[in-house]
Amino acid sequence: MSNKVFAHASDAIHDISDGAVLMLGGFGLCGIPEHAIAALVKKGVRQLTCISNNAGVDDFGIGLLLQQRQVKKMISSYVGENAEFERQLLSGELEVELIPQGTLATRCMMAGYGIPAFFTPAGYGTEVAADKESRPFKLFGQEKDYLMEYAFEADFALVKAWKGDTQGNLIFKAAARNFNPLMAMAGRITIAEVEHLVEPGQLDPNEIHTPGIYVHRIFKGDHFEKRIEQRTVQAKSTV
Amino acid sequence: MSNKVFAHASDAIHDISDGAVLMLGGFGLCGIPEHAIAALVKKGVRQLTCISNNAGVDDFGIGLLLQQRQVKKMISSYVGENAEFERQLLSGELEVELIPQGTLATRCMMAGYGIPAFFTPAGYGTEVAADKESRPFKLFGQEKDYLMEYAFEADFALVKAWKGDTQGNLIFKAAARNFNPLMAMAGRITIAEVEHLVEPGQLDPNEIHTPGIYVHRIFKGDHFEKRIEQRTVQAKSTV
Amino acid sequence: MLDKNQIAKRIAQELRDGMYVNLGIGIPTLVANYIPEGVQVVLQSENGLLGMGPFPMEGEEDADVINAGKQTITTIPGSAFFDSAMSFGMIRAGKIDLTVLGAMEVADNGDIANWKIPGKMVKGMGGAMDLVASAQNIIVAMQHTNRAGESKLLSQCTLPITGLRCVRKVVTELGVFDITTRGFELREIAPGVTVEDVIAKTAGRLVVDGDIKTIVL
Amino acid sequence: MLDKNQIAKRIAQELRDGMYVNLGIGIPTLVANYIPEGVQVVLQSENGLLGMGPFPMEGEEDADVINAGKQTITTIPGSAFFDSAMSFGMIRAGKIDLTVLGAMEVADNGDIANWKIPGKMVKGMGGAMDLVASAQNIIVAMQHTNRAGESKLLSQCTLPITGLRCVRKVVTELGVFDITTRGFELREIAPGVTVEDVIAKTAGRLVVDGDIKTIVL
After folding, report:
1. How far is C143 from chain A (nearest CA, A)?
2. Tens digit of pLDDT for each residue in D74-114?
3. I want to staple B28 with a disulfide (CB 3.0 to 4.6 A). Which of A93, B44, C71, D70 is the partner?
4. What is the ipTM for the molecules in this complex?
């Protein structure tokens, strides 16, 4: 079988070059491809377009790429929590395109499903609708106006999974699933980093979230930091 | 918590009445809602529109509804393997609409995703395209022509799952998944029959295929016949 | 006048057993603290979870289990995880029975503005535009006026719109307002607040007639 | 002349290691029996399985594990199940490297007809229209002529079309044909068959030039 397994992040991303369009999975810092990001920082590729729901924080996630000024454009739904991002945006160094979160997620999925365009109500009547085709449809007995949106594709999709096998089958964990399986389907080349890399047959075929056909390269991350953005807990004494 | 659990198929389908539009999960006889079908036969509702990939065989699946002449219209991708079906079709008793399998599956999913219309290449240039809007799109570097197709919704979706909990969360098994999770999302009322009905917490939240929000009623089937349509085996002696 | 927690508590009275509910960030999040006894609702977090539980015990937080506010949370029996496309899929398909959101402005036709202030750094709409375009039943929880003392209940939004004609009810520190074809209909008034206060602080069309109760918490 | 199994065996030579392959019903299914040594391919069954294994041992068949032909099958290490929408999603997105289909007619521009004969009971297109509209690389496996002895390689399909300009290669009992802008280009000829036989039985534009090999199995 042709080999999808790479030893290190740096090998897996070896051909990502300046100007590439990337998708990066994750919601906030949850389920982000932290090893691929670190390898991109080390490689020093520039002028990247990053499609990702968020832009990380100053010192983690996509924030690391922003620090090194490797990002030309961010396409996201929400970009708070990042002072360097704000500075680059206000200075005009960084281009930003904001897209409603559901539209962003669905556009990725549609690429993976081979559907070039679809209709969603999100953003109708707002500035998001500028220059977009719209028309009314009736669904579940309700008529309203919808915008036509296009599938999103990327040169490379960088995703993070919990478990993966050497054929590229992936299982995500809990809320770290988020955009990962959607972007996994939308990359011309999809690179998955996993916490646990196993042999074919060790994942239950019934529990696979992303079939290996969508995944071109896979590697095991050495150690996942999995930083928590908002640590909210109940004090033990309150129980 | 409001109760989604019904004791018997007959209770769960009590309000399906003449002329209802139904979706029925399954591929061939694999993963069909056999208890709901039996209850519909017993109830004797008529003039049903059945959206289902196939139409069963003469004495099982939707074939049982056809035998009792309860079906007015079938919407399917393939309707072979059923002599009574053929007879009713040729005599004009039964109306049939044929839809490409991928389009059928995707139209159900789109209803569940609140997307009223989308573009697919299937059927472009064929008689399926008659009266349909078409236009070219480029995806993954390739331009071709696509048809606009609409989301499919149903009064009732009847699906069959392997395991389900009392909140309606469902897990399907193997190839019995097929259209079931898609139709589960497309019913105004979705009724799931399961082999194993468990309490909330007994299904791993990470392994659920259909979240309970899409499922309105659930019941445990007494005994699933799970008939095999094409029994193909290797003789033991050949090993 | 209600405080933030009282606004949340009043909104919690709208919850019905078996509802699927999406609570936005801010006051809406507090609604979860006041779910009435005997009522069980399923909370959706749009990053991919149905059945959101409370914050974890100290030391038990899991980076992979967060809510849409990026806070560590827990699951409960019956929880289900899914991807972001399915999450907004169920939102768009109208499966969420009640959505509670904050807002900067609400117009008397139900328009809402809650994502962008011109001249200020724009952080993005996140899932707000998807939610307001699709939710069947949206309640806005907010202060009646902005920091400058200007009404946030307007005849027309002045800030960039998030969604059109979608808000059904507004709960502020002053009262509970249904949005109908007539505008903001005052249904309940907060203890210690007069109808004159409400009139003075409401810029949009306000309807004050019929039976106006005092809010009981 | 090739028999059905030899047609399948010749098509199996097109398989490359790591390919994702969808095999239609009939001769295409037989291709799985001739996968060359050292080549591993992943078979997709469009009812929702990647990694289709052989038929089960007698007594081990499982009604929940079937292929698109409704036959009981098995999984193999690395198999994955998914729903029908994702199945056709990966087909539409061009993730299947090779699709092998039967046909009633193929035109010299790549049009294919394989789902309906007017006047006969129509059973439906199943997944055929989705496959032909999306597959990147379609090989048709079929007999060169129909039962009446008429060519199935035409200048234009006479039967209702399944898809336009999609077939890349045709393998019949007579030979291997690439479909290019010039029409059916004869690449390989079956043992015992003459170019004259091929010309006589091909109604569409046929190109016979360059290096024409004899099929080696």
Report:
1. 23
2. 999 999 999 999 999 999 999 999 999 999 999 999 999 99
3. D70
4. 0.97
